[in-house]
Each structure stands twice: as C-alpha cells, then as structure tokens.
Target: Reverse transcriptase zinc-binding domain-containing protein
Amino acid sequence: TGHNYLYCHLNCIGKVQSSDCPTCAQAPETTFHYLLQCPAHRGARAQLRFCRSGIGDVTEKMMLRGLLDNEKSLTPLFNFINSTGRFRHIYRNATTDRKGQ
Model:
C-alpha cells in the first residue's frame, strides 16, 4: 500500500518536511531505498542477500517483492529492520512471533 513510517510516505502526508533518507540523504527514503539501496544499511543488508537464494536470481524489484511476500523472508527481514535501528523509536524490536494475534 505504500503506507509506512519511511520519510517518502511521511512527506506525502505532511508529517516531515523532506522525503530524503534521514540516514544517507542521497535519495528519497522509499521502501526500495531503505531495504535495498541505502549505503548506511549495507552491513545489515547482508542478512537480506542471504535469503536471495530462496527467491532465485532476480532483479532488485523482484527481490523486494519476494522479501515482502515470502514468509521465509520474514526472519531475515525483521533482523535487518532491528539491526538498522530505523524504527526503534516506534517499536522496540520487530519480531515474527505471532502469539497474541
């Protein structure tokens, strides 16, 4: 849906003044940029590259869809989110624990 706490969306709804990535300031902070491009998250991104083998040899856009639509990618995805610390002000730790749902 595109609704998230990244600056590109927050800028569209008037919550922040700029859509620029607050970490690198090199591009708008979209989901694609946050997960696959931001140089500040290069080290954390290694966890996501690992699950690429389960998705196959694909383009980055296809990889993004695979990460977000593939249940096997959830643990590496949440590990990436936690290691970037990007949403720590909102969530303490992202988890795949489904208890209480």
User: Anything to note?
Assistant: The CA atoms of residues 31 and 51 lie 18 Å apart. The chain has one domain: 7-84. Residues 7-84 form one domain. DSSP finds six helices and no strands in the chain.
